[in-house]
Design a protein that fits this description.
about 0% strand; three-stranded mixed sheet; about 600 residues
């Protein structure tokens, strides 16, 4: 699964301080919608004014975002962000930003998005409309008052920002010192906001706060042992290293100590014990808002729960059929026992795990041309997480920089390699790199129309939905190296659609949820417990993967049924990917129009090839 260092989509690592959901995970955020589809009439010339208005709005949003949240924009691959900037996380700054959101939403509502069909601005309009609408609905959560998170809190983001901070020149060194010099004020501001949250009845669960405390404590080390020392370590200039050390020891470490003390002595005793979001004020409305923000759909949690149960049942039955044929067992505990007991399904060292991940990515990359019409040129780097994050994070993907100066990165967790399964790590590599996130986002960046807005908007329903679809597609591509991988990939999907609403809305106990997660075999008992804390601080996010994947599989089935022998899987993938991270309703519009276009196209024309 992807780490949730996201702003609204999948793979970005840094989020604005005032949101509970990314806009990231996350995730990572994407490329714009497509130009006119084959057979689609271009928008009338009379819409030129509306197209210009949408583009001006998108330009204004990107400029304002980059100025207000420079480190978030930089992490999402945008150029032009101030290298010394750090978001103002005060409540007053949030109020100013929300006023701008309201103004943009009002301007956008005056433009008929449907009339823009067939132009790149149709996607810009739809994505900006959904992003603003979801963020405004999220205000009921008051996420700025419970900002702690072991998944995407400041202690995670700051460590990752240190790896991205540019140095190497006197100007960049000075900028880095100014940016990190703002950290103490940011931490003191978060203390004040969290204290106000406690007063008003908002907090994260106590167990999640304990994990945050462990991470914060891990930063209270001598400067040269800290992950925050990375800019000086990479730069190599002795004078800069001395200044950086003085900043860490003299200003940042005391601020972290204040935060640690507040968290330990004041926050933990007052934090809620129950992981359910319903224990916060307006929790039910917040959960609906979170689900919409992650998936772009408005659906009651009970319906998501039922759909998830049906999918889990189907997936387990498929896994049992493979296990009967290859392992000679069918009972789920016996299947899990076989996965765990096979010594060939384990790693002996961190180096072996890292090499296996890189080999999985390489094999998948070689298979891409047989299933996609274009193979994106962008490369992906497999990079281990900083060690102090290993207890709380999963594998994730971060897109490369807009100007090509930084490659896309598959962040891999090398902690406890002996407890990790090859069958699990293999499918994670396919999810994060090829044919998952890296291919998905690189394809959109390279072949779709471009607008920087689409690195700042996105949704996990589409982004994570594709990555879950990619896990199944990898099997069609022949990528799994043993039947264990084919079994493994069926044991987890859709469980997030069950356990997330179950825990938050339907009265599930923590132990019940841990057991449901652990019985999938995807996670150790320890990891299952960690996943509960993830669900607690990222409500509804875990539902998005299979909500999106089920829609993509359904659209593929509809296209195959409608087109018969003319269905071309590579052309279908073009239709899904070329428009970037559209909402799920927009994706359905695009694919249904593509089906109509294929029916109307003469046999043998581009995009109307026979199925392989």
């Amino acid at each position: 699964m992807d780490a949730p260092f996201t702003r609204g989509g999948a793979a970005s690592k840094i989020r604005p301080p005032m949101t509970r959901v990314p806009a990231a995970l996350a995730l990572c955020l994407l490329a714009s919608c497509a130009t006119s589809k084959p057979g689609t009439a271009p928008a009338p010339a009379g819409n030129d004014r509306a197209r210009a208005a949408v583009r001006a709005l998108a330009d204004d949003y990107v400029a304002a975002f980059t100025a207000t949240f420079p480190e978030v924009a930089e992490a999402n691959g945008l150029t032009g962000a101030a290298p010394d900037g750090l978001s103002d996380n005060s409540l007053a700054a949030l109020a100013r930003w929300e006023a701008r959101e309201d103004a943009w939403a009002a301007q956008l509502s005056a433009i008929d998005g449907a009339a823009l069909w067939g132009t790149p601005e149709w996607a810009l309009h739809g994505l900006l409309q959904e992003d603003l609408g979801a963020r405004r609905q999220l205000r009921v959560c008051r996420g700025e008052l419970w900002p702690m998170s072991q998944m995407n809190g400041w202690q995670v983001q700051l460590s990752l920002l240190a790896t991205l901070q540019r140095t190497g020149t006197p100007e960049l060194r000075a900028a880095a010192l100014r940016r990190f010099g703002r950290v103490p004020t940011s931490l003191d501001t978060e203390i004040a906001s969290a204290r106000e949250g406690l007063r008003l009845g908002y907090s994260i669960p106590r167990r999640a706060a304990e994990r945050v405390l462990e991470q914060v404590q891990g930063l209270l080390v001598p400067a040269k042992e800290s992950p925050l020392f990375d800019p000086a370590r990479r730069d190599g200039d002795p004078a800069f290293a001395a200044e950086w050390t003085a900043l860490l020891d003299g200003q940042i470490r005391p601020a972290i100590t204040r935060y640690r003390d507040f968290l330990r002595d004041e926050y933990l005793p007052a934090a809620r014990a129950d992981p359910s979001l319903l224990k916060n004020r307006d929790g039910a409305a917040c959960y609906r808002a979170q689900f919409r923000a992650w998936t772009t759909l408005d659906r009651p949690p009970e319906e998501t729960f039922r759909l998830g149960q049906a999918r889990v049942k189907q997936s387990v039955e498929e896994a049992q059929a493979i296990a009967r044929e290859t392992l000679g067992v069918t009972a789920l505990p016996d299947i899990l026992g076989k996965l765990q007991a096979d010594p060939r399904n384990h790693f002996s060292s961190r180096d072996e795990l890292a090499a296996f991940a890189r080999d999985s990515v390489s094999r998948a990359r070689e298979a891409v041309p047989r299933f996609f019409s274009h193979a994106p040129a962008a490369q992906v780097l497999v990079q281990p997480y900083p060690a102090q994050l290993e207890a709380s994070v999963d594998g994730s993907y971060q897109p490369g920089a807009e100007d090509g100066s930084r490659p896309g990165t598959y962040w891999i967790n090398l902690g406890e390699p002996g407890a990790r399964l090859r069958s699990n790590e293999e499918l994670t590599a396919f999810h994060e790199a090829y044919p998952g996130h890296h291919l998905q986002l690189s394809f959109a960046y390279q072949f779709g129309p471009r607008h920087p807005l689409l690195r700042l908007t996105g949704n996990s329903g589409y982004i994570e939905g594709w990555a879950r679809y990619a896990e199944g597609l990898a099997e069609e591509m022949g990528l799994y190296s043993s039947p264990l991988g084919r079994i493994q990939r069926r044991l987890w999907p859709a469980r997030g659609m069950v356990v997330d609403p179950g825990l938050h809305c339907l009265g599930w106990t923590r132990d019940q949820a841990v057991q449901f997660i652990a019985e999938s075999g995807r996670f150790t008992r320890k990891e299952a417990e960690s996943t509960i804390e993830r669900i607690a601080v990222l409500p509804a996010q875990l539902t998005a993967y299979d909500t999106g994947a089920l829609e993509i599989f359904a659209l593929r089935d509809e296209a195959r049924a409608a087109l018969g022998g003319r269905f071309d899987l590579r052309a279908f993938h073009d239709a899904v990917l070329s428009s970037g991270p559209v909402t799920l309703p927009m994706l359905r519009q695009l694919v249904e129009r593509w089906i109509q276009d294929q029916k109307a196209a003469p046999p043998g024309s581009p995009g109307a090839r026979s199925a392989p």
